[in-house]
Specification:
homodimer, alpha/beta, FAD/NAD(P)-binding domain, 4-stranded parallel sheet, 32% helix
C-alpha cells in the first residue's frame, strides 16, 4: 500500500523530519518545480532552544511550537503527513511508514538527534531527558509533583531525594536549566511551599569536561560558572556520572548524591533509519555527507543538520550540532536542488556565534569578533530567540510571558496537567512514543 | 499516619475540591480565625465554562487554569494539599487520603460533578467526555489525529467515521462545541486539509429534549437552533442515543450515524465520597442540604455547588448546577462560618442569568429582565467570561487569543502533544485518573 498523495509529473522530494533543517528546506522549496512531501511524527515544529523554559513552567508548549499545516496553508506543492518512518530502500527509492510506502526521487534525511545515554541502561531507565516538548512537560510535572510530595515527608533523607535535583551535562541546556531552577528556588518556592525549608534544596550541575559550555570561549565558560555559583548552583567539573538508580547518582570518583531526579543533558545521538548502509554512519551515529550534503555514495539522498557529518576546512571533525548549521545547510541544498545541481555550490558554514543564558539579567555571548557577558548579553539572547521563533503570535505570547515573568519574578504556569487516559483505551496510550 | 499539617489551636475546616465552590470558600476564609485545608487532585483551579475552547484548539489549558498555590501565596491560614480523598468517617471527624488521615472540625464537600453516562457501559467505553482540561485536550488531539488519518483513507465510509463528529447533549457545552466545530469546518479545515473534501464533514448535535438549552428561555433555545443550522450543524431534537460502539451511534428510533467520535455532554452526576450515609444522597447523586448548606443530619458537614441539593422556594427541585450557585453558596457559608453560625443566614440564590455562545458574533443571553440574541449577546458573553477568569495574566492571554482568532479566523493551537511515557515507568502512568 502506498501513502495517499496526489499524483504529479514533478520530481518528488521526500523530507523526513520537520526540525530546523527539514522545515527550512521545505519552506525554501515552496512554489518550486518539485513536489515536496514533509514527514514528521508530530504535526508541529518544535523550537528546541526554549525547551528548558517549558520545563521550568515559564512558557507553554504552544508558544514555542508551530503547527506545520499552518505554515503551508497557501503552498500547493508541499504536502505534510504525520507519521514515523520505518525503513528506507535506496535501491527501489522507497521509504516504508505505518501509513504505507512512498516513492521518492530525492530523499532528505533530517531526523535530528535524540538523547544519548551512552549505553547506560540504568541511567536511561531513571533519568529524564529533555529533547522534546513532551519530555520538557514531563520534567515540569515531575518537579512540581515531587515538591507536593515533599510536604508530607518527615524523613530528611527521603525529602532530600524529592527536592534536590541533579543536572548532568554542562552544555547550554544544562546551564540554562540549572540557572532557571536556581531562580525558582530563590523567588517562587519559598512563597508557595512555606512549610518547606527551601534552603534544603540543592541544585547540582555535573560536567564531565573541565569547563562549562565547551565549544564557547573561555570567557563565556568562566562567566557561566561564576553566574551559576552566585545564584547557588553547585557546579562540579571533571566529574563523570556512572550510574543512577532512581535514588542515588553515582560518580566515577566513588561519590554519590541523593536525588530522585536526574535531568540528562549530557549528549545527543543522531536518529538513524533502517536501510542506510553501515559504512556511511560515523561517530554519534551521524551520516557522512559531501560538501553538497549528499550522503556518501548517493547522489539523490541527502542528510542535513544534527545528523549530517561533513568535514569542512575550519571544522575537520564536523560542524557543531546547532540550529544555525541545520538552517544554513537546508538553504544551500534548496539552492542546489532548485538549479538541478548544475554547478552546485559547496556548503560553507557562516558561524554567527553562540550564546547561553543563566537566569535573570545574565547571559554569555560569543560572536566572531566580540565576546561579552552579563546584562547586555542577556538582552541580546532575548532578542535573538524572540526573532528566531516562527509566527507573530508566538513572538507576542513569548514576549508577554517574558515581560510578565521578569516583572513579577514568577513563572506562573505551574500546572500539573495529567494526560487523560480514556476508558478501555490504555493499550493505545502505551504505544505512544 | 496523618497528613503533615502544621499544628494549630484554631478550628480546622477541610474543603474537598477547588472548583468554583471550594476555591471561593477558601478565599473568603483567608485570614479568618480558622485553619483551612484545601484539597484537590489537581494543583490548579479549572475554569469549566471555557473547556470547549481548549478542546477546539482556541485556548491553552494554562489560560483557563490557575495554580492554587499562587492564589494563597500571601495567606497564612490556608494550606493546600494535592490529593484524592478516599473516605470520610463522620463519627471520628476524619477523612482518609493516600497522603494519610486528616482530622476536621468542619468538613466541606465541594467535589463538583463528573460526566453521567447513565449506566451505559458501552457509551462510557467509547465516547469522549469533557469535564476536565485533560479530557478537553484529549478531545482536541483525537479530532486532529483523525483528520490526519483521514487523508490516507480512500474508503468513503471509513473516512466518514474519522471526519464526522456526533455531539450528544444540547446544553451550553454541546451547543458551544457544535458551534466551534462548525467554524473550524468552515474556516480552517479547507485551508489545512486541501486534499480532503470538507463538505463531507458532518457535525451532528443530538438532544433528548424537545429544545436546545433547556432551562433557558424559548427565545434563546430557538435562536441557538437557528444559529447552529445556519452554520451547518445538523440538530436532532427529541432523539435519545442508546448506544455507541466506537463506529456507529445508535438512536432509540433505530437510526444510526457513522462516526468514530462521540462527544458526550448529555449529563452530569455528582462526585460522591465513601462514608456519607445513603439517605442523604438523592437524584443525580446530589447530597441533601438545609438552607445553610449543612448536610441533612449533620451540623459540621457541608455540601456546596454542583453536588448540593437544596430546595428553595423558587427552586423546588434544587438549584441549577452552575458556577453562580456554587460561588454564592460558598459566600453565604463563609459568612455563617465567620460568625460561628450565630444567627446564620439562609441561602437565597440570586439568578444573574445565563448565556451560551454559538461561534463568531452569535450568542444567546437571558437576564432576569431582558433576553437578547446575536452580536450584542456575543459581546456580553465575551466580557462576562473574561472578567470571571482568575488572574490578570490569564485575562490578558485569553483576550489576545480571542482577538487574534477573531481577526485571523484561525485558532492556531492545533498541536497534538502526546504525553511522554518515561522508560520503565508505564505502570505509574496507567494509574493516573
Amino acid at each position: 500500500m502506498y501513502i495517499n498523495i496526489p499524483p504529479t509529473d514533478k520530481e518528488r522530494i521526500v523530507i523526513i523530519g520537520a526540525g530546523f533543517a527539514g522545515l527550512s528546506l521545505a519552506r525554501k522549496l515552496a512554489k518550486s518545480s518539485y513536489q515536496v512531501i514533509l514527514l514528521d511524527k508530530n504535526n508541529f515544529h518544535q523550537f528546541q532552544p526554549l525547551f528548558y523554559q517549558v520545563a521550568m513552567a515559564g512558557l507553554e508548549p504552544s508558544s514555542i511550537s508551530f503547527p506545520l499545516r499552518k505554515i503551508f496553508q497557501k503552498v500547493k506543492n508541499v504536502f505534510f503527513r504525520m507519521t514515523e518512518v520505518d525503513r528506507v530502500d535506496t535501491a527501489a527509492q522507497l521509504i516504508s511508514t505505518p501509513l504505507g510506502d512512498l516513492h521518492y526521487d530525492h530523499l532528505v534525511l533530517a531526523m535530528g538527534a535524540d538523547t544519548n545515554f551512552f549505553g547506560n541502561e540504568e541511567v536511561r531507565r531513571h533519568a529524564i531527558p529533555m529533547k522534546s516538548v513532551s519530555e520538557a512537560l514531563y520534567l515540569r510535572n515531575a518537579i512540581l509533583n515531587d515538591f507536593e510530595k515533599a510536604l508530607n515527608v518527615v524523613d530528611y533523607d527521603e525529602r532530600q531525594g524529592l527536592i534536590d535535583i541533579v543536572i548532568v551535562g554542562g552544555g547550554p541546556t544544562g546551564v540554562e536549566v540549572a540557572g532557571a531552577l536556581a531562580e525558582m528556588k530563590k523567588y517562587i518556592l519559598p512563597r508557595e511551599y512555606k512549610e518547606l525549608d527551601c534552603d534544603e534544596i540543592d541544585i547540582h550541575l555535573i560536567q564531565g569536561a573541565d569547563c562549562l559550555l565547551k565549544g564557547m570561549s573561555s570567557e563565556a565558560s568562566e562567566a557561566a560558572e561564576r553566574f551559576l555559583s552566585d545564584i547557588g548552583v553547585q557546579v562540579k567539573l571533571n566529574t563523570r556520572v556512572t550510574g543512577f538508580d532512581g535514588k542515588y547518582v553515582s560518580m566515577k570518583d566513588g561519590s554519590k548524591i541523593r536525588s530522585n531526579k536526574v535531568i540528562w543533558a549530557a549528549g545527543i545521538r543522531a536518529n538513524t533509519i533502517e536501510g542506510m548502509p553501515e559504512e556511511v554512519i560515523t561517530y554519534g551515529r551521524r551520516i557522512k555527507v559531501n560538501p553538497y550534503n549528499q550522503v556518501e555514495g548517493f547522489s539523490r539522498v541527502y542528510a542535513l543538520g544534527d545528523l549530517a557529518y561533513m568535514e569542512e576546512k575550519d571544522f575537520p571533525e564536523g560542524h557543531p550540532q546547532v540550529a544555525q548549521v541545520a538552517i544554513q545547510q537546508a538553504e544551500n541544498l534548496a539552492k542546489n536542488l532548485k538549479k538541478n545541481f548544475v554547478e552546485p555550490k559547496e556548503f560553507a558554514y557562516n558561524d554567527l556565534g553562540s550564546m547561553a543564558t543563566i537566569g535573570r539579567n545574565r547571559a554569555v555571548v560569543d560572536l566572531s569578533r566580540v565576546k561579552f557577558q552579563g546584562f547586555f548579553a542577556w538582552v541580546v539572547w532575548l532578542v535573538v530567540h524572540l526573532f528566531a521563533l516562527i509566527g507573530v503570535k508566538n513572538k507576542i505570547f513569548v514576549f508577554i510571558n517574558w515581560l510578565w515573568n521578569y516583572m513579577t519574578y514568577d513563572q506562573s504556569l505551574r500546572l500539573i496537567i495529567r494526560p487523560y487516559l480514556p476508558f478501555g483505551k490504555k493499550e493505545k496510550m502505551e504505544k505512544v512514543e
